[in-house]
Each structure stands twice: as C-alpha cells, then as structure tokens.
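Example 9 (inverse folding). The structure is encoded as follows.
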C-alpha cells in the first residue's frame, strides 16, 4: 500500500464525519434496507442532509441509548440494515448490555458507529471522553471492531460493513486528520497495512494517531533508525501474522492509539506477542481519566504526538 504523500503532516485535514454521512447516503440510495438510528444526535453526527434525503429512514429515539440499540436490533430482525450513530462514550457505555445481548449474542445485523471517540470532546472532560470503548467491546464475542484513520478508510469501512451480515463497531473521528490512503483503498478485516517498511522498530497505530506515527517514523529515519509503520484499522479481528512478523523482525513494537492503554489496540498486540513470539512492547495511550483540555493538548500530554511516539521508539531500540 502506497500512502498519499510522505510529508503527511503538511496535508489538508478532514473531518471523517463528512465521509461518514456522504457514504451512508450513497449506501441508502443503493439499498432501501439501510436506515439510520440516532439518540438526538443528528447534528453532532452531521446527519441533517441524510434526514432531508431520507426523512422516513432516520429514527431519532431521543436521549435513550439503550432503546436506540434495542430499536436497531428490532429493525435488523425485520430485514433492515441499521447504522446506529451516537457519541461513542454514550453508545458504548450506556447501552453496553444491549450491545452484548441484543446485538452480539443474538448475532444481529447492526452497525454501531461511535461518533467523536477518544478525546475528541476534550473540553467537556472525562464524562465525554470515550477511551474505554475499544477495550470493553473487545471483550464481547462476535463483534468486529474498526478504527479508521482517515476519510477514505472511514468510507471504505462503512461500505464493507453494509455488505456483510453481523455486528460491526466503527469509530468515526471528529478530530481533523490528513488523508493517508489513496482513493482506491479497500478495507479488509483482519489485515494490517504496511505504511512504511523498516527493520529496527515497529510502530503500530490506527485512527487519529496513525498519521502521527508516520511522522514519527520520518523523524526516526533522519536519525538512522528504520521504523516499520503498520496501520491496524481492524482491532478485532487482529492481523496476528503481521504482529508476529514485527516481533520477529524488529527490536520491538510501539503501539499508539487514542484509547486507554488497558485492553485496546496495545492490549491486543501485547496478547498476541506474548502468546506467539515474546518481544518488547511499549503501549502508548491514555492511562487514566484524562483532564479537561483540547484534544491536541491531551494527545501531546500522553505522548501521542509524533515527537512522543519517536521518543518511545528511541528508548525501546536503545
């Protein structure tokens, strides 16, 4: 896979919610079964244009997340393909029992779209941060978990999800990110993408942090450190083969994600390494209830800037 441009930090930035609503509308035009279900989050999900185009195919249950997931499950049982759109912190926390029982355990064809995940709502504090969503959904059997890195991957993940039967969770970022994939990109579950080859250390990332890992690799290259960069949009299923190869072929692995350090991408990678090929792993993420502050400030605070990722890699290889 060839990335759009090596100077990724200088590229224009995009809100992945725009790709989300555009793609959802395209899918709805193609398939009458596709509907949206929201929790009074039409504006924050940028679904106003979808509501205008499909007024009878957007169900707003109000601020009732458990009901929202239950309604989506009922729609799926009736032959519809519901895309549930809500702030990830409320979708996955308040409705976790319904996600477990009504969606995953029942193997219902519901697509859960966690909007504005991670620390996107930085100034609203820990109640609105969604750093645990990946960890607790990973513990639920049968749930595919996707963390797209840019608008191209967001659109590709939605198209894939619409075409498969079964539960899917997709994070949809509101934090502006550069485009890192070519327009021809196609999402494939359980597959990592090599964004940069390298033999000294491996950086594994996804979501809003991937481009930062790519910049970190550029910084390391200037110092003579060859960093492999793996994009891991599919947290579950995980590309075990790519992780084991990184453990075997480089001095160690640094994972970087906009998520808790317990049970997210880093946890999945560490579990794989310890079972298949023990190696050094450094997990970068958010280790606590993050304070109030802008998303950029919070990422920098926890070492998720390009400089922070590069510094962790330096310590690992030394």
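The amino acid assigned to each position is listed next.
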């Amino acid at each position: 896979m060839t990335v759009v441009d090596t100077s990724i930090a200088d590229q224009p930035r995009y809100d992945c919610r725009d790709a989300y609503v555009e793609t959802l509308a395209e899918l709805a035009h193609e398939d009458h079964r596709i509907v949206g279900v929201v929790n009074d989050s039409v504006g924050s999900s940028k679904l106003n244009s979808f509501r205008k185009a499909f007024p009878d195919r957007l169900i707003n249950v109000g601020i009732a997340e458990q009901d929202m997931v239950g309604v989506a499950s009922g729609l799926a049982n009736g032959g519809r393909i519901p895309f549930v759109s809500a702030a990830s912190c409320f979708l996955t926390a308040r409705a976790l029992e319904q996600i477990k029982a009504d969606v995953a355990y029942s193997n219902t064809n519901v697509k859960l779209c966690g909007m504005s995940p991670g620390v996107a709502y930085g100034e609203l504090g820990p109640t609105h941060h969604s750093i645990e969503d990946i960890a607790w959904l990973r513990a639920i059997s049968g749930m595919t978990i996707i963390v797209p890195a840019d608008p191209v991957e967001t659109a590709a993940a939605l198209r894939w999800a619409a075409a498969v039967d079964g539960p899917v969770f997709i994070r949809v970022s509101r934090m502006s990110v550069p485009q890192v994939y070519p327009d021809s990109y196609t999402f494939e579950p359980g597959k990592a993408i090599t964004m940069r080859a390298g033999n000294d250390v491996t950086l594994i990332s996804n979501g809003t942090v991937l481009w930062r890992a790519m910049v970190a690799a550029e910084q390391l290259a200037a110092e003579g450190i060859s960093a492999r960069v793996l994009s891991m949009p599919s947290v579950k299923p995980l590309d075990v083969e790519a992780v084991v190869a990184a453990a075997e072929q480089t001095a160690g692995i640094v994972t970087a994600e906009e998520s808790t350090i317990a049970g997210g991408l880093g946890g999945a990678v560490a579990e794989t390494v310890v079972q298949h090929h023990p190696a050094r792993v450094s997990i970068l993420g958010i280790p606590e209830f993050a304070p109030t502050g802008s998303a950029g400030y919070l990422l920098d605070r926890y070492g998720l800037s390009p400089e922070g990722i590069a510094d962790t890699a330096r310590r690992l290889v030394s």
